[in-house]
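User: Working on a comparison across species. This one is Short-chain dehydrogenase from Pseudidiomarina taiwanensis. Can you predict its structure so I can line it up against the others?
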Amino acid sequence: MTQKVAVITGAGRRFGFELAKALLAENYIVLAHYNTSRAGIDELEQLGAIGLQADLSDLQEVKRLIRAIQSHTLKVDLLVNNASCFFNNQTVDADLANLDAVFRVHAMAPYLLIHYLQSEFEAADDALVVNITDIYVDSPSPQYIAYCAAKAGLASLTQSFAKTLAPHVRVNAIQPGPILFLPEHDSEHRRTVLEQTPLKVEGGLQPMIEAVRFLRDNRFITGESIKVDGGRALNI
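Assistant: Here's the predicted structure for Short-chain dehydrogenase from Pseudidiomarina taiwanensis:
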């Protein structure tokens, strides 16, 4: 296979969706994972992506996803662990299943994907894993305790796998800040966040895509975590 192969989790919307489109435009074969966000996957499939459904909060589903990836390709040049469930304390405390999902989606599923796709990484030339963590890894939010802890686990996995998979596979992380507000964020919330952000703007998704390209193209970076946050981590 001369084409590069990318696997993106959570590719049905927001950053995962836009990254998938950008890589398709660069002639990648894109395996686009989704759970319920099917509309974006329909568009990606029309552009040539392969949609793969799995609930990452179910570890048996994760293993099924891994088998599906392996059935489509003998190599993986890029894995982006992007899927997320952004649950606050109230959501987590309301149902233990939500607590379980936070750690499975953000830490356990990425662990399994990285672990079981090692042969596919090694079949590629300079394979790269990019884990999407959060600026709150370094300064946890008291409103999102479980989420921050799970993302911190993913940050630790980044460094651990960077050590164990070198020199054939590089593993890095991106810590996003105010990239793209959620629909439920009201004007007051947006104003407060931007006041805390030195660059005073909502970043958009392009800086995240450029960060992935930077990590891909610089072959001398592994075990690193890059903040793409307009400087907001300085003030939280």
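For your comparison, note: Strands lie at 5-8, 29-34, 50-53, 78-81, 127-132, 169-176, 225-228.

User: Helpful, thanks.
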